[in-house]
Amino acid sequence: MAQQAHSSGKRVTRRYRRGVGGAWWASLVVVTALLGFVGRSDSGFWSVFLWSIVGFVVGSLVSIALSGRLVRATSEDEAFAGLPAGGAEATR
Amino acid sequence: MKWLLMVAFVLGAAITWFLTVRRVSRTLPAGEAAETEIVEPEIAPVVSPGGAVAGGVGVAGGADLVAATSAGLIDAAGDTSHVEDPAGDGEDAGDDASGFGGVHTPASESTGAAEGWDRDAEDEDTLLSHAPSGGARASIPPVADATPSGDLAGVGDPAEVAAVDDLEAETEDPEKPDQDS
Lengths: 92, 181
Prior knowledge:
The complex is a heterodimer. Helices cover 55% and strands 15% of the residues of chain A. Chain A is built from 4 helices and 3 strands; from the N terminus they run E-E-H-H-H-H-E. In chain A, helix 1 packs antiparallel against helix 3. The two termini of chain A are 16 Å apart. By secondary structure, chain B is mainly alpha-helical. Among the domains of chain B are: 33 residues, no CATH class; 26 residues, no CATH class; 33 residues, no CATH class. Helices cover 36% and strands 4% of the residues of chain B. Chain B contains 7 helices and 1 strand; from the N terminus they run αβαααααα. Chain B is elongated, with a radius of gyration of 38 Å. At the A-B interface, strand 2, helix 1, helix 3, helix 4 and strand 3 of A face helix 1, strand 1, helix 2 and helix 3 of B. Chain A: Keywords: Membrane, Transmembrane, Transmembrane helix.
């Protein structure tokens, strides 16, 4: 769980995990369609499109596994457990 | 086409990471930030046999445990002996004894043959030894042909059995008037 305690000691940044939402599905469609369009002259749109889906999903699974390994907190409160309450400010 | 597949892999990993992992910042109050030591919870919960769970983020109740640890209610080793009793009634010794399994009683401490397989069993020999010695059973003479359990039915000389029955009847009702008179 990464954190950045600034030298002033007043600002703490931590990370927590969220579930994949509709944005992931939209990204899947957009990315694979774009890759299929780019590689349509190579081996056809649908071949590249379908293989891109496979690559996108496999990359997502790897990313989820890494985030589950590196980021333990699943909520903001859990990420800041042990710290006094302060003003929250989402950075992303 | 391989490079397109690699691009899809990288894009899938990157987009998923940015969508699932969220960074958040908190600004601590200046006074509390100076006094508070930022304790980073352990990534993996440390569990040892017979020990307390320290830094159990990711497990049920882990956040509460970390919060209690940082608040000073318990320390990392799970030692709560220094915690003051809020009620102040000074019953710490009794509470410690009944924390798990209850206070040891003489019945639970006995390790007889009967208790070897059943904790709630009581030693029958011990119970018989506490029986009143002046009862009817004590005056009954032992019969040589009795079974090991003491059963006289169908065993022994009928005359002896009849004598024992008469003796039992007299002992149980010594003041009962005779039916014939």
